[in-house]
Amino acid sequence: MRMIKYISILFILLATSLVSAQVQFEAKVSKKKLGVNERLRIDFEMNKDGDNFVPPNFEGFDVVGGPNTSVSNSWYNGQRSYKKTYSYFLAPKKRGSFTIKQAIIEIDGETYKTFPVTITVTAAVDKPNGPPDASDIASDNIHLVAEVSKSNPYLNEAITVVYKLYVSPETGVSNWREKDNPRYNDFWSQNIEIKGLNIQNGKYKGEDYRYVVLRKTVLYPQKTGKLKLEPLVLDITVEVPTNRTDIFGRALMTKVPKTVTAGSLTIDVKPLPETGKPSDFKGAVGNFSLNVSTSKNQLNATESLQATIEVSGKGNLKLFELPKLTAPSSLEVYEPEHKENVRTNLAGMQGSISDTYTIVPQYKGKYPIPLISFSYFDLATETYKRISSDEIIIDVLEGPTAALNAANESSSANTKQTVKPNTNAFAFIKTSSNWTAMRGKSFFKSNLFWGLFLVPFLFIPLAIFIRRRKDLRDADVQGTRQRKADRLARKYLSKAKKDLGQKEAFYIALEKALHNYLKAKLSIETSDFNKDKIKKLLTDRQVEADVVNQFLSILESCELARYTPITQVTMQNDYDKAAKTISLIDKQLR
Question: Which domain range does residue 229 map to?
């Protein structure tokens, strides 16, 4: 009897181990009957890890979430418990009876399949049967909001857009990514860097929520009228509480994928008033000060000095042109060097921009640099203001005198000559004529007379049209800057071709052509250039990676050429590569 007892115990232990080692792979659904407006969750569970999972095709349903993968690995009374789950969220396409076919997986070299599951879809229901599913809970407890500082700004007035993600206290977010970045057409834009996502407490529609600031952007509208802001779209994994609890009584969370959007917004941009608008207004909007200075006021002829025109303050500093320096013809003035020291925060652009001219006097004397005037639109008072500099006198101490030089040129004309009188001084005047009377129709009131009389009036509407187009073109400050940069790019590319064989001149012209091309196409300044930013901007505008890398390699060639020997063949190859790359970027840029 004792032997039989031991053998029975042994058989029981073997059977238990065999059952525990048995592989289980099954499909579980949240419900088998649902309305056409409800969602279905299906979990494919296994008790051992597997490979090459193949889901069914879910005929009759749209997959609105998933697959989400979760793994549970625990020990209880010395025994290991393992569970791996692939979860999908389905939306029925129509009413009817549908069969979710088998899912397949490989575990330990063997192929396992789930049993088919039949689902009945009924008409839409007012209230879903049972408690709301996790997807509905997530939709009610997470919101993406775009907050605009001002919805009715002036042209070129700074506004800010702050994107906040609100999450209810009962819900969590495990990860998120930007699915679609807004493109701010008709706006100059700059994102403000956010260091870390700080969770803050706030209110959403009167209820307590937690929120994080995901993005801050400063915008300057470049057109008037109703302008649309594209929405920001996020893919988020939301943690939603379930009806199940752990051993400590805490609610277990389930993960639900959600796509949230801030929605599109409309900004109604006001034009700047025409009343009181100065004729030399260049589009400056904000609050500014003007400073005109020279490096020295006394020097000798052929020496040089620098004159700087600087505008500082708060406003659209990168979006207008500085007033030009005027000087007497005896002062040789070179093209200015433009500098920008501008920082951008939620209040907009602040800092200064300047043009520095190099001036070389040719003659001795005192030369005035006339006052320089600058006008801008003041947002605080909503009026135009003008600021002017003082006149500056340049005293050239030594050098040739302009008056003596002019006198020497005309000295040969002052030599006196003896004039012999002529007794018939008016012989060239005719005293008789051979005129004949005109016969035929008079010119007065003829067709030709009326035609010539009316033609100038016909040109008046054309002149008005051309004038208005010119005013619109002048008001488009950013477009003017881009066109100017585009012209410079073509100019320097042409100069580079002429300088083939002269290494330094060629690569300087080629580099300037590439920089001005970027300024024209991407609306960024030379001070903002770096390879990482150029790569990001071109990639964001959907330029292929190979073309971007080729463009960057040409810039590197321009930098390295100053320190390495270069043949004319290499220069020709770099020129051809630059022209081809610019052409490719033009075709691909979005």
Answer: 137-269
